[in-house]
Design goal:
CATH class of the largest domain: Alpha Beta
Distance between the termini: 45 Å
CATH topology of the largest domain: Alpha-D-Glucose-1,6-Bisphosphate, Chain A, domain 4
Helix content: 25-40%
Strand order of the largest sheet: 11-17-16-15-14-13-12
Number of helices: 15
CATH architecture of the largest domain: 2-Layer Sandwich
Shape: globular
Largest sheet: 7 strands, antiparallel
Number of domains: 3
Structural class: alpha+beta
CATH superfamily of the largest domain: START domain
Number of strands: 17
Length: about 400
């Protein structure tokens, strides 16, 4: 936030942001037009704005176009201004949305820096276990260029031959066409038929994601473009990406929202690899939860844990040897409220040695009858997990 406030403190830089807010996607030459300052000075101001992540750039041929990046403004508004007086923040709120430019240029360009790895961010963009949490959407595809994509959103399956993967270079670049506006989708999201018919007649847009590692961070650049001029779809989605990027960042850096379910953080002297082994081998699982466990702990496999009065079945959604394991409960005779909930074990190195587990049982909320019983049991079992010693497969 310090870089953002510093960048906004200069009136010339605020003027440049105003210009990009009025028409996002300008070259240095265009931004200099009409300004009583040198090209070099404008270039230096833009460098400060880029360092603060308020401006992002896209190269097309020999030209470099500058775009307002609303993500830091959204974060500033959500984390700071809303605490004090959002009514006085309307002027800044306008900066959150970059207006569409001509059809020959990308319409929306957003950049976020996320403390994660390219591999984990790629999983967050493609795997249902992740996308369901921050987007309430998941994709059915093999992520091969040219392959069809089925979008699942709010209980509807959206299919069309033009919904395809355009580019897929894990974990560096991903691009696909936007979904079709079907009557079923419109009914699920509350869009009337006249509006649906209008947006369905527009050109199909596309979205691209570029992932660039920068030390402990990954720079994620999202470009959503190829809209019709004056597109209603563009107007509808323009505020969505900054919020979505914020939700991805929260999920990957903090494990998600406290409102999603039961969460706990536990530390251990055991290294990350030992804790991951205790989550991904049958011997390891038997050592901290229940000795009666069978099945396959690999992605796509199922694990059956037997307690009184019956078994609980977990589908393994994701395993990252660097420290993230995700399960979904598919059946449970012992805890009926668990079915459909998901368990996230995010194991990270602890400064000075050992590890820290950020655990979240998504869907296990205080309103459920089993919450009062299950939450202390989780504390007990996770304490056992984090006292684990090295196990063998």
């Amino acid at each position: 936030m310090d870089d953002v406030f510093k960048a906004l403190a200069d009136p010339q830089r605020r003027l440049l942001l105003d210009r990009l807010n009025a028409r996002s996607g300008q070259t240095l030459r265009e931004l200099c037009t009409g300004l009583d300052t040198t090209r070099q000075a404008v270039s230096k101001h833009l460098a400060v704005l880029q360092a603060a992540n308020l401006v992002t750039t896209v190269r097309r041929g020999r030209e470099k176009w500058h775009y307002l990046n609303p993500a830091p403004i959204t974060e500033l508004a959500d984390r700071w201004i809303s605490r004090y007086d959002r009514a006085r923040a309307h002027a800044l709120a306008d900066l959150k949305n970059a207006l569409e430019d001509t059809v020959t240029r990308p319409n929306f360009v957003h950049t976020s820096y996320i403390r994660t790895t390219p591999e984990r961010l790629w999983a967050a963009l493609t795997e249902p276990a992740f996308t369901r949490r921050y987007w309430q959407t998941h994709f059915e595809t093999d992520w091969v260029p040219g392959s069809p994509m089925v979008w699942h959103e709010r209980g509807t399956a959206i299919t069309d031959t033009e919904q395809v993967v355009l580019e897929s270079d894990p974990p560096r670049r991903l691009s696909y066409t936007w979904h079709t506006f079907t009557p079923e989708w419109a009914a699920a999201v509350g869009v009337d038929e006249d509006l649906r018919a209008g947006i369905a007649a527009e050109r199909r847009s596309r979205v691209s994601f570029d992932l660039e590692p920068e030390g402990p961070l990954v720079k994620l650049t999202v470009v959503h473009d190829d809209f019709d001029e004056g597109s209603t779809v563009a107007e509808m989605i323009k505020g969505g990406w900054p919020r979505l990027l914020g939700d991805i960042k929260t999920l990957l850096e903090a494990g998600g929202s406290d409102e999603e379910g039961f969460g706990l953080q536990v530390t251990s002297a055991a290294p990350v690899e030992d804790v991951v082994a205790a989550l991904t081998t049958l011997d390891g699982l038997a050592g901290w939860w229940t000795p009666d466990v069978t099945g396959s702990p690999v992605p796509g496999g199922e694990l059956t844990f037997r307690f009184e009065p019956g078994a609980t079945v977990m589908r393994v959604e994701h395993v990252d040897p660097a420290g993230l394991v995700v399960w979904t409960c598919t059946a449970s005779a012992s805890f009926a409220d668990w079915v459909g909930t998901s368990l996230w074990f995010d194991v990270r190195p602890r400064p000075g040695g050992g590890s820290v587990l950020v655990f979240r049982h998504v869907g296990l909320t205080a309103e459920l009858p089993c919450f009062a019983t299950c939450s202390p049991r989780w504390e007990h079992h996770l304490a056992n997990l984090m006292m684990t010693e090295r196990v063998t497969a």
